[in-house]
């Protein structure tokens, strides 16, 4: 397992509010939307206010599949600029390292670990490494997920099913199960699981396995919330809608995702997604990150077992004539 550390690893001594770089507006920012998630631009990193000061956050899937701001990468960076020490785990070494480098350049504290979130052994090693380094884990953020290739019953294989369920659901079970004893020993903690609006709505395209996995994640999270509420452990889901992340350009089955969807360019696909949204635009990784930050922080101390939709109004609509 690769380990790359930067910054000062004593969470109690971290004060990123004073040192974090960048003050750029992150939401409804025209230049950000026009730029369409090219390389991750560190000038987009918001200024922290110490909302996670002294906390240790483990982000599973904290890289991004291509350059740019993914949900997991933005969340990892945001936790760090808000004062947390962040452990960034990703199956791709380079992706975890890139997030850690960004955090470092913003004056934050982070550690990169390469591990497969669907492997019981890897997850156990990650949690051991966190315990060794910090003796605690205040927040577990499960971002690992994705739709995979099997989408409808016409073409789904058992291998597609198993891989997609493993990525979207089993990964969260493994990390939660491994982290729970740490949180119970320290008297509490918070879990944020990244689900999707496809867990509660049909989105007009076949996503049967993905939707099943994410709906399972919602139910799983609610159970954790109730089973461990009395132990001071909170568990909630964030349900992103259409988010402008590198996923749009991601190759699936040898073709960029936008080509599979019948669009010539990523921009064309992005504009088509924008048009389906009541607010007129896709969300950004920062929108998902801020919802996660709230649920992870002490500001949400009385919130558990809930699902927070982040979708610009998509799921509030209903087709009419
Ligand atoms: N982008 C959207 O429009 C959208 C909408 C709804 C929900 N989501 C959810 O958001 C999450 C991902 O968003 P993102 O933008 O960060 O995507 P991303 O694919 O860019 O980032 C996910 C990261 O997880 C890593 N990863 C994948 N499998 C892993 C594994 N087994 N072990 C460890 N790491 C692994 C990848 O290498 C990648 O770096 C997913 O759970 C996805 O289902 C995204």
Q: What order do the helices and strands come in, and which of them pair?
A:
Blueprint: E1 3-6, H1 16-19, H2 30-35, E2 56-60, H3 71-81, E3 85-90, H4 93-105, E4 109-114, H5 120-134, E5 139-142, H6 158-186, E6 189-194, H7 208-227, E7 233-240, E8 251-252, E9 255-256, H8 257-260, H9 266-275, H10 285-296, E10 307-310
Parallel strand pairs: 2-3, 2-5, 3-4, 5-6, 6-7, 7-10
Antiparallel strand pairs: 1-4, 8-9
The protein binds nicotinamide-adenine-dinucleotide.
Model description:
The chain has a single domain (3-311), classed as Rossmann fold (3-Layer(aba) Sandwich). Helices cover 39% and strands 15% of the residues. The chain has ten helices and ten strands. It has an eight-stranded mixed beta sheet, sandwiched between helices. A two-stranded antiparallel sheet has the order 8-9. Strand 5 (139-142), helix 6 and strand 6 (189-194) form a beta-alpha-beta unit. Helix 3 (71-81) runs parallel beside helix 4 (93-105), helix 3 packs across helix 10 and helix 5 packs parallel to helix 6. The model is unreliable at 4-37 (pLDDT under 50). The structure holds nicotinamide-adenine-dinucleotide (NAD).
């Amino acid at each position: 397992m690769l380990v790359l550390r930067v910054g000062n690893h004593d969470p109690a001594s971290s004060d990123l509010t004073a040192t974090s770089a960048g003050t750029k507006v992150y939401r409804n920012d025209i230049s950000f939307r026009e730029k369409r998630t090219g390389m991750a631009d560190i000038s987009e990193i918001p200024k922290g206010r110490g909302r996670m000061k002294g906390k240790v956050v483990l982000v599973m899937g904290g890289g991004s599949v291509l350059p740019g701001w993914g949900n997991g990468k933005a969340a990892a960076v945001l936790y760090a600029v808000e004062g947390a020490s962040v452990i960034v785990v990703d199956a791709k070494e380079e992706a975890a390292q890139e997030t850690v480098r960004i955090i470092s350049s913003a004056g934050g504290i982070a550690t990169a670990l390469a591990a497969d979130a669907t492997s019981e052994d890897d997850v156990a090693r990650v949690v051991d490494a966190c315990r060794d380094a910090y003796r605690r884990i205040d927040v577990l953020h499960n971002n690992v997920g994705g739709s995979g290739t099997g989408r409808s019953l016409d073409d789904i294989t058992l291998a597609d099913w198993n891989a997609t369920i493993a990525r979207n659901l089993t990964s969260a079970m493994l990390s939660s199960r491994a982290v729970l004893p740490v949180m119970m020993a320290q008297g509490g903690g918070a879990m944020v699981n990244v689900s999707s609006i496809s867990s509660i709505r049909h989105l007009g395209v076949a996503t049967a396995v993905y939707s099943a996995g994410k709906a399972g994640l919602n139910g799983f999270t609610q159970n954790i919330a109730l089973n461990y509420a009395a132990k001071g452990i909170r568990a909630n889901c964030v349900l992103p809608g259409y988010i402008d992340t590198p996923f749009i350009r991601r190759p699936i089955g040898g073709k960029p995702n936008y080509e599979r969807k019948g669009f010539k360019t990523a921009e064309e696909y992005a504009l088509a997604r924008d048009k389906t949204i009541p607010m007129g635009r896709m969300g950004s990784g920062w929108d998902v990150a801020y919802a996660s930050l709230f649920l992870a922080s002490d500001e949400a101390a009385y919130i558990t077992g809930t699902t927070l939709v982040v979708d610009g109004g998509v799921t509030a609509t209903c087709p009419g004539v």
